[in-house]
Structures are given as C-alpha cells and as structure tokens.
Amino acid sequence: MSLVQKARLKSLWVLHYDCGSCNGCDIEILAALTPKFDVERFGIVNIGDPKQADVLLVTGPANRRNQRVLRNLYEQMPEPKLVIAVGTCASTGGIFHNCPNVLGGVDKVVPVDVYIPGCAVRPEQIIDAVVLALDKLAGKAPKEGEQ
Amino acid sequence: MDAASTIISLVLALATPLMGGVLAGVDRKLTARMQERVGPPLLQPFYDVIKLWAKKPMIASPLQPVLAFGYLGFALVAAGIVTFRQDLLLVLFVTALADICLTVAALSAKSPYSYLGARREFLSMLSYEPVMLLAYVAVFMVTGSFMVQGVLDYGKPLLLVLPAALVALQLVLIVEMKKSPFDVSGSGHAHQELVRGVYTELSGYTMALVEVGHWAKVATTLMVLSLFWAPNPVIGAAVGLTMFFISLVVDNSYPRLTWQRMLKTTWALGFTLIVLNIAALAAGGVI
Predict the structure, then answer these.
(1) What's A26's domain CATH number?
(2) Which of A124, B208, B240, B278 places its Cα 20 to 30 Å from the Cα of A5?
(3) B25 to chain A: which residues are within 8 Å by CB?
(4) Interface pTM (ipTM) of the complex?
(5) What residue in A sits closest to B198 (Cα-Cα)?
(6) Is B190 helix (H, G, I), strand (E, B) or coil?
C-alpha cells in the first residue's frame, strides 16, 4: 500500500449535509463525534467545508428544492470522494417517498457509495459504513450481494 | 560562523515544519485527552497533509497556488532567520509577509466566508503583532540588541528579567496558533462559524502547503519563546513547550470571543504587562 493510499484511509474528513431530515440521523452523526464513540481516533473529522472534505454524509430525502444544493456540494468536493446516504430517508425517501415534492433517495441526485438503513441510524452503523467506504476507497469493495 | 554551525542552522530551519507537525499531533492527542476522548494517532497531521496533497486540485483563483507557496516559503525564511541567529524584528516582518500571503489568497477567491475569514485574519495580525513588537523592544532594552545572537550572548535567562513580557507573549502564541478564545479567523475541528474562515477556499495541495506553513510558523514562535531561557537549551525548550501546553488548556476551557474582545484583551493586557515589566526594570535600575 502506497503512502498516499495509507494517508487516504487514515484521514477522512466529513461534510455533513441535511437534506431536510427529521434531525434524528443528524443527532446520531454528532453522537459519533462525542467522547463515547470518538471517530477522531480513526482520523475522521467533521470539517464542514466541501472543498476539503472526502466524504459527504447526507441525511434526509432529496427533494426539488435541495437537489441543486446537494449537487453543488458534491461538485465542489475534489476527487477522490465518497457519498454515504445516512438513514432510510436518504437511502430511499423513507416515509416521505410518495410526497409530491420528494424525489426519493439522494441517489436520484448524486452517486451514493454506501447506504445506511435505519430510522434513526445508530452511531455504530455510521462508523461501520465509513469503514465500508474506506474499503471502497482502497479498491476492495465487497461484491454485489456479499454484504 | 563556520560550516558546521551553518549546516546545523539550515537543518534546524528546514525541520521546523516537521517539529510543528509533531506538535500538531501532540495538540490533537492532548485535546482529545482533555475532552476524555482517545484521540487520533500522533502522526495524524502528516496523514492529513499527504492526503490533501494527493487530492485532485480545485483552484478557486489562479493566484492561490503562488500565495500558498509564498506562505510556506516566508514561514521557512522566518524560521531560518531565527536559527541563523539574526534579527528578531526581521522574524516578525517576514512572518507578517507569510500572513499577508494567506489573507490575500483568501481574498482572491470570490467567497463571502473566505473574505470574512481574511478580514478577521488581518485583525488577528493587528492584535498580536504590536504586542510581539513591544516584547522584542523590551528584549532590546535588556540585552541591547535585537539579534537572536544578542539574546544568546546576554548570559542570564531573560525569563527572570522579563516574566510579564513572556505572559504577554503567551497571548500572542494563542492568537498565532489560532486557538480559542482567539480563533476568530478560522479553526479546525468542529468549531465551524465561517465554514473554515480564512481557509475556506483552499483545497487539495494549496491547503496542504498552508497547513505545513502554519506548523513552521508555530514552531518558529516556540523557538523564539525558548530564547527566554537561552543559556540552557533544554530548559528553554521546556519554557516553549509549557507555553504550548498552556495554550491547549486555554483552548479547551474558553469559548471563542468576538474580534473586538480579542483586540481589547491582547492590546490591553499585552501592552500593560510589557510596559509594567519595563517600568519595574527601570525602577530597579536594571536598564
């Protein structure tokens, strides 16, 4: 493994965008940063600047209003980048799936690498998903249906 | 100056980013410990910088790469001026040039957050540089020279003569390290107020350069603080590291202040402490 590859796996800066979730998943993302779960020990930092972020954590369903913002944030992130859909709403639209203004999961707008189902997700699941995303970054993602 | 000491000075100057990087790792580890977290590995800042360097460039304005190199370059020159035992005033001015590179890089991008961050960075410079300048003047009044060599030749520890000036320089160090309560212009971790303030529009390798330049700057300032116990380098380093540790304790105990409060605190407290120190020395007949 090259030094750059190792550095990429060890330093993941996170951008969190709320597409209009109920805040359940957002609170769990913040919980992952607290002393109990402490994701910074893996080098994961909530950076809040798309230009410096490696991972986009999206909560809530994509709708007609926020799709522009979501796409803009995704495009401002330099490669290599990952998108994680946090929670049922971000994955499929969840209970909002048949609302007239809702497009569905965030994968309708940006390509998603890892989906985390759950309402709300658990901090352990978020950490697990980020580890799975790291595998994808290292080029050893599990095959379809394996996970 | 013979060849051996020239090489030592050169190596020391080029090693300042490494020293600063390790200190940044210690900073993150200690901060995590103070918050009852485990914290990242010691070399985490280096992983961050290597990763940033390898990211696809996304340059917000064509001026930014030049200015990012300028920031690192001037920071290294400032480090060199200290290790070659030259003028303390020149260290201050070259460091100011590095800061101006950063602020102009932030101003060159059309972004309101970057712009606000740059204005606050200017205010940070305005709050710490005069205090630093006056502290160097106090050093001059005691040792009779602005040169680092002059401080080394003075023979006695400056800390015993200028304790209050060192307290004022502690404030300077906190502003320079961009730590709470004076981290108005931009800070890492989760204190996002202006996104990333002055760093908002920097990404990829420009951000990596600025990060390394900041390490060099902090290490240079700590080297200057170590001069306060110049006769013994080990105790000198201990003085510098103690002040580094105090900055971390303050960072973890205080919320961020507004820039007005920052300016008032550093000027009122910094100037008063140094002037009182000089007055006491003059009354005691030392100078």
Answers:
(1) 3.40.50.12280
(2) A124
(3) none
(4) 0.86
(5) A49
(6) coil
